[in-house]
Amino acid sequence: MSEDRLGLYIHWPYCVRICPYCDFNVFKAANADGDALFTAMLDDLARWRMLTGPRALSSVHFGGGTPSLMTPAQVARLLEAADQLFGLAPGAEIGLEANPREAAAFKGLAGAGIKRLSLGVQAFNDADLKRLGRDHGADEARRAITAAQYAFSRVSIDMIYAREGQSVDAWRGELAEAIALGLDHLSLYQLTIEPGTAFERQVRRGTLKAPGEDLAADLFTLTQELTEAGGIGAYEVSNHARDRAAQSVHNRLYWEGADWIGIGPGAHSRLGRADQGGRVGYAAALKPAAYIAAATAGDGHVEEPLSARDEAVERILMGIRLVGDGLDAGRVAAITGYGPDAAAVERLSAQGLIEAGANRLSLTGKGRIYADAVAEALIPD
Fold it and tell me: Model confidence over 139-189: pLDDT tens digits?
């Protein structure tokens, strides 16, 4: 893949309600100053152009929060500004995350320029949707999927498994329904109890009990088996596509260590490489009002230069998640001077968790179950 790739992430932080499992930088839409945020994001985008110079965008992704709460006119204006400032590469992926409740906006969003929709379905039963804090029902999700398939050329749905009280058979039925929809992409995430979330507080109080490790592993294994049999196998630990063309262009920027810039209160950015003067991170985890003030003043980008080892760690943690392609360990070492821990590679290979080629490492089927632990073990000293 070209090292010149550049992606744009647009973070819209507002949600109608905050899901209890979410640890993103999100805020209730009832308190939104959407017009001021929109204007600040346009200012921020123009400043990024001064920092990056003329580089075409391989992808533009609207995330959140709930970016489907933006008006089609706002989406269209941001895309127009991105094209004017940077230019869109031929075939650039233009994607947006949406909730089923905003299905009435799909036609307008498609007209604004969105080509790929990622729909937050999460479950196909009402009881679990309620426990997950979602504001839609299962039938509403089904109708939204149909509407999305009519409106957009590419549609993906997100689902969460390893939910409280979920059985293997229950997940088998939900996943079979998702596969039968004929979508070209599925994002299937195991529920993680993140620090600081409402779910984490419920676990501490004993009012929420997530599945144990053995059941979670069984659910993961079932996920891999059913998706593979359904022709939509994994290309990343939690992401599945029918072919290479259906894979997420934008997410591959993260997994492969390419460059991206972000605008919005929760957007982060990465630019550069260790062997070309160093990689720089730009972090933002601000409240909307603080972001608006900073972007308006032109000083909203907080630089965090990454050491060569820091960059190697990021590339290892992200790259090992790619199924099939795996981690180009030789390239990581060439760029940063650091490769995966050699002793860990030998040990993990002997345990059947990774396959090690001349320059590449890839997770085995067994290794994917323990992907995070494997990735941590590979970090160089």
Answer: 999 999 999 999 999 999 999 999 999 999 999 999 999 999 999 999 999
Distance, CA of 109 to CA of 103 (rounded, Å): 10
Helix axes 371-378, 308-319, angle to 10 degrees: 150
pLDDT tens-digit map of 292-345: 998 888 876 778 899 999 999 999 999 999 998 899 999 999 999 999 999 999
Q: Are 208 and 202 in contact (CB under 8 A)?
A: yes
Q: Helices (H), strands (E): how many in the chain?
A: 15, 17
Taking residue 140's Cβ as centre, other Cβ atoms within 10 Å add up to 18
| Under 8 Å between Cβ of 301 and 47 | yes
- Class of the CATH-defined domain 6-253: alpha beta
pTM, full prediction: 0.95
- Structural domain spans, the chain: 6-253, 308-381
CATH number of the domain at 308-381, please? 1.10.10.920
Q: For residue 282, what are the β-bridge partners?
A: 269, 303
